[in-house]
Design a protein that fits this description.
Keywords: Membrane, Transmembrane, Transmembrane helix. This is DNA-binding transcriptional regulator of glucitol operon. The chain crosses the membrane at residues 9-29, 41-60. Residues 81-95 have a biased composition (Low complexity). This protein has a domain at 2-74. It has helices at 7-35, 41-74, 114-128. It starts with 6 loop residues before the first helix and ends in an 11-residue tail after the last helix. The protein is mainly α. The longest helix is centred in the middle third of the chain and has 34 residues, at 41-74.
Length: 139
């Protein structure tokens, strides 16, 4: 729980309280305006408490995330596996994208469509020149 009393977290706690109180106050102000005859204020009277609830939701989620991270850091490591056991594969938290080389596909069906061939040459040129704009195409 010490992590929740750092200067950064104290600022988050204070910001959450100020925002929630402010949003609820604005919601109450809209209720009084709606009671005075301003029909548009009925929508705002609902909107401000929703904003306050969202602030509480984000604050609570960040709080839980910090507590979980602290728990995982303090967790004791698992006992070593037996010598004959297969080692468990560690799953990385962030995976790198897979790069696949593209191989041009040979046309099928023997269709000799001039427009299609020109369009395919245009697409092949765009693929070969990734920084180029379509207006730079020489053909």
């Amino acid at each position: 729980m010490r992590r929740l009393w750092t200067p950064a977290w104290i600022a988050r706690h204070v910001a959450m309280v100020v925002l929630v109180v402010g949003f609820l106050g604005l919601g109450w102000w809209q209720v009084t305006r709606a009671a005075g005859g301003n029909t548009l204020s009925f929508g705002y009277a609902i909107e401000w408490p929703v904003f306050a609830a969202f602030v509480v939701f984000v604050w609570w989620r960040e709080l839980r995330h910090t507590v979980r991270a602290a728990r995982e850091e303090g967790a004791t490591p698992a006992p070593p596996a037996a010598a004959d056991a297969e080692p468990a594969a560690a799953t990385p938290a962030v995976r790198r994208p897979v790069r696949v080389s593209r191989v041009p596909v040979a046309p099928t069906g023997g269709a000799d469509d001039g427009e299609l061939a020109a369009y395919n040459r245009y697409l092949a040129w765009l693929n070969a020149n990734p920084g180029a704009r379509p207006g730079d195409y020489p053909g």
